[in-house]
Specification:
378 residues; 60s Ribosomal Protein L30, Chain: A; Porin; 2 domains; eight-stranded antiparallel beta barrel; four-stranded mixed beta sheet; 7 helices
Amino acid sequence: MKKIVTMLAFSVGLANLHAQSATEKTTENNYNKWSIELDGGVNKAQKPFTSGYFTSTPSPYVANLGARYMFNNKFGLKADLGYNSFTGKNNSIDFDSKYYRVDLQAVANLGRIMNFETWTNTLGLLGHAGFGVGQIEHKDLDVKDWVGNFIAGVTGQIRLSNRVALTGDFSTIVNASQDYTFDGAYLPDNRGFSALMFTGTVGLNVYLGKNTKHADWVVVSQDVDLSPLESKIADLEALISKIPEKQVIIEKPITNTIVNDKDLIKEMINAKYYSVYFDFNKATPIENSTAAIDVVLNYLRKNPSASLDLIGYADQVGSSEYNTKLSNTRANNIKTIFEKAGIASSRLTVIADGADTSIQKDSEEARRLARRVTFRIK
């Protein structure tokens, strides 16, 4: 009998956990990893320049083409080609230079690293940095200046569909061994990283592959820490062990098992084995939480003198004031369900406990367990 009750409680816990994670998680192999990146915009070459030469702020033109591969949903590599044009501003001495480059860059999906999925499924952020080589050509001069470069930048993303994202990028490029200024004057003994320029572009990410989503937008499943659930099961076993055998009736040969101890149900409710769970930033309970509501509702109907505290919680994402308001709304919504089911409002008390600080903030699985309403029978 005790094993049966324990297994039921364990099943309820796992069902709630699965219900919250099934639509938000993916596996290592069911998302695309390749993408093509195309963008264009403006630049600003800062130095080196000969006195009297400079460019507009900003100055056209920039064009970039890249191919990116993500090892997982957080890190990847991309190879890209870039073209920059530099011309003199109206009151600058005329010059016309072109800069061609090729780079290999590491990419970090900052949106996944910083858990953007907890507040948006549309906005993303990539960081990138790497090294490459380039060539600067100066019009009317028979000069091809080969340089090394370091490039770093951030790319904002707006997902338009599962295949396309709009991007906006800001990058810094530092050149080494640039023997000529951007306007074409010779620089003797210029070996180190001394040339500096900035680029700002807008463009598109086009995602390739047979799967529905790209690594930029998926959350990969991780092993779930079941230690809090195991602790609850151990507490439940200890609780059941205190029940006198005369309070347990096993009907034979029928396989149904009946526990005739209303205090056991009360203790299980008060010990938070029956809780109502919510999606992130939502105040409507998830579908699988109706089982917990039914258990508490049946107890209140069978015990008309009992009253109930409804205790709302939120995870730790967001401000304290917002989480308190959200936890209150969640508890009030569950109170409304009980009232519509015939439970008098005078028997129901809402308590807004705000963010549940006892649950790990940086664990996505733990945050799912924090978004809940629990009950206390009085």
